Amino acid sequence: MDFEQANTLNAAIRAVGIRHRALAGALLAPLGLHPGQEVLLLELDAEGPRTQGQLATASGCEPPTITNSVRKLEAAGLVVRRPSPTDGRVTIVELSDGGRAVLPRLKTAWGNSPSTPSLD
Predict the structure, then answer these.
(1) Which architecture does CATH list for 3-111?
(2) Spatial distance between the Cα atoms of 98 and 108, rounded to a whole number of angstroms
(3) Directed axis angle between helix 37-47 and helix 52-59, to 10°?
(4) pTM of the entire structure?
């Protein structure tokens, strides 16, 4: 691939990323969520309580980003944090009742996006 092809591809990827983030923001705002927070809620729904490190790995985000997102989700009443019973350095994150209550609306909003391709 030459420079021009790579530059064109990079520009297209950036444009898709920007559009996806804007669409995600529009879908999530009515739920009081910001882009990226849905990933954490959906991961906790699918896998159950996780460490912040596991959430970082699953989301592809850096640990400080996860810490900040989890704090915001906790302040919104959507998750609860507790110390690990086996390692005092580790925090376990799990859905709260409020987090479980928002999941059906999150899944409906995400599934009804006009830009979401069907995988069926």
Answers:
(1) Orthogonal Bundle (1.10)
(2) 16
(3) 110
(4) 0.82
